[in-house]
């Protein structure tokens, strides 16, 4: 495990963020792009929820730290009705340069 993977794993453990297998998503469709990456709409599991998957293009230590900070902030405000809910994270192994994905719903 490299240092960025260790940082992410530490965050997931400390913040009790759930991990979802990427293979559990279907009907994945690109809905937007930005400086940090792409956003996709997908269906989780057997249609339980429609979610947004945010795929980060860059995988360097600065991006990893920014992602971790964003995950922590989402956990702190995850109970507010006006905030998009963080369900957890997933990982797409097929894209080594863009393997960090996190997902949101509602």
Automatic annotation (TrEMBL):
> Which sites bind ATP?
54
Q: Does the record's keyword annotation contain RNA-binding? A: no
Stored InterPro entries:
Kinase-like_dom_sf (IPR011009), Prot_kinase_dom (IPR000719), Protein_kinase_ATP_BS (IPR017441)
Ordered alphabetically, the record's keywords are:
ATP-binding, Nucleotide-binding
| One GO MF term attached to the UniProt entry | ATP binding
- Signal sequence residues: none
Q: Does the keyword Nucleotide-binding apply?
A: yes
Family annotation (SUPFAM superfamilies)? Protein kinase-like (PK-like)
Domain (Protein kinase): residue spans on this chain: 25-106
Q: Which Pfam families would you find in this protein's record?
A: Pkinase
Q: Please give the superkingdom of this protein's source.
A: Eukaryota
The protein's name: Protein kinase domain-containing protein
Q: Which organism is it from?
A: Gigaspora rosea
